[in-house]
Write a structure and sequence with these properties.
Oligomer: single chain
CATH class of the largest domain: Alpha Beta
CATH architecture of the largest domain: 3-Layer(aba) Sandwich
Radius of gyration: 21 Å
Strand order of the largest sheet: 3-2-1-4-5-6-7
Number of domains: 2
Number of strands: 13
Structural class: alpha/beta
Largest sheet: 7 strands, parallel
CATH topology of the largest domain: Rossmann fold
Length: 383
């Protein structure tokens, strides 16, 4: 039997890990998996030593607050590796945790494959030296990442973006989906996407709700809906949404279906911007963090003009970005207002048609499985 340590400490990466486990099961591959993942992964037989929902923290202060949990899970992973001796470790994103873990795994002789690269090409480029020492192979989502790593002597393979496969789960009948959520044809639907991490909800949710309240007061035809990330409980959002005077509907479904019913969106920076971009929806990108974390971020992030993933991939601003003080309720409402009465502006998403081509082709999960096959115990086929 093959045995794989998987560390997926984010909502998006846990979905991609889930798809890999599902692929192995469809192919009849017997693979024992354990590590950090989601409840959905656990339902597939994944042995969970830490939950993505609890581990996904960003920023210095947030990490300090969660440090006891992070340290406990970290040591439990190493203890289990000493006991179970996995064939390979598959580390997804989550760089500060995973790169340190990779060092300890290499000391134990465990092969390390990294899927979803840290953004070393944008900031803290010095980490590429560590990656070269502790990572056996890097599986990257963007073509320029493969070029970057090969120039630095790191074995890498471009597998494409797994989000392209998620498009297959999209309901093609948008009007039917809108009806299901109780959204009227003549309403202009604003989707709020505050993020999936607890720290993001803390920093973004109230500001996004306040921006929506300003906009819906000015424009009665605008209907604001709050999109609930798969890893977030609806009740977590309900309490805060009830504190503003404007009624805000919370919807929870497949991410692409929720995005599909919206006419324009306010999106926290991250993978969500790619999802919105793939559906060619107009958006405003925002991000807020604690003052001390923002101070460090402004000094560490170099070699890039943007922080929104869709803009980074397109290498130009196809969506307006608002950071920290700019991402106030009033500032966001002002930017969103530009889409309300200007249908031509909402429709001007031609540039986003290029996005799909830049993300490669469908089949990323299968390519990841193929890349991992040489590392696995070849006796692991059940049929």
């Amino acid at each position: 039997m093959s045995r794989v340590l998987i560390v997926a400490g984010e909502a998006s990466s846990s979905l991609y890990a889930q798809r890999l486990i599902e692929h192995w099961q469809r192919e009849g591959r017997t693979v024992e998996t354990f590590g950090i993942g989601s409840r959905s992964m656990e339902s597939l037989g994944f042995r969970c030593l830490g939950r993505s929902e609890e581990m996904a923290v960003v920023g210095l202060m947030e990490v300090i607050r969660h440090f006891p949990l992070i340290r406990r899970v970290y040591h439990s992973l190493l203890e289990e590796c000493d006991r179970a001796k996995p064939d390979v470790a598959l580390l997804l994103d989550y760089p500060d945790f995973n790169l340190r873990l990779a060092k300890d795994l290499k000391k134990r002789g465990i092969k390390v494959v990294y899927y979803i690269s840290p953004q070393v090409w944008a900031w803290r480029r010095g980490r590429v030296k560590l990656i070269k020492k502790v990572v056996d192979e890097m599986l990257v989502l963007f073509p320029f990442e493969e070029t970057f790593y090969r120039e630095h002597g790191v074995k890498s393979a471009f597998v494409g973006h797994p989000l392209l496969d998620e498009l297959d789960h999209l309901s093609k009948d948008v009007e039917l989906s809108r009806q299901r959520f109780g959204l009227k044809k003549d309403e202009l639907v604003l989707g709020l996407m505050p993020g999936s991490r607890e720290s993001e909800l803390k920093n973004h949710l109230q500001e996004q709700l306040a921006a929506a309240e300003l906009l819906t007061r000015r424009y009665p035809k605008v209907r604001a809906v709050l999109l609930c990330a798969p890893t977030i409980e609806r009740e977590r959002l309900q309490k805060e949404a009830s504190e503003i005077s404007t009624p805000i509907q919370i919807i929870k479904s497949e991410p692409f279906e929720m995005i599909g019913v919206c006419d324009f969106l306010l999106v926290a920076s991250g993978t969500a911007t790619l999802m919105v971009g793939l559906l060619e929806k107009p958006m405003v990108i925002m991000y807020r963090m604690s003052a001390i974390t923002a101070w460090f971020a402004k000094r560490l992030v170099k070699h890039t003009r943007f922080f929104g993933m869709v803009n980074l991939v397109m290498d130009r601003e196809v969506a307006r970005e608002l950071f920290q003080e700019e991402a106030s309720a009033a500032g966001m409402a002002t930017e969103l207002e530009k889409f309300v009465d200007d249908e031509a502006r909402r429709a001007k998403t031609v540039e986003l048609k290029e996005l799909k081509a830049r993300l490669g082709s469908q089949g990323a999960t299968e390519r990841v499985a193929t890349a991992l096959a040489p590392y696995l115990n070849q006796g692991g086929w059940s049929g």
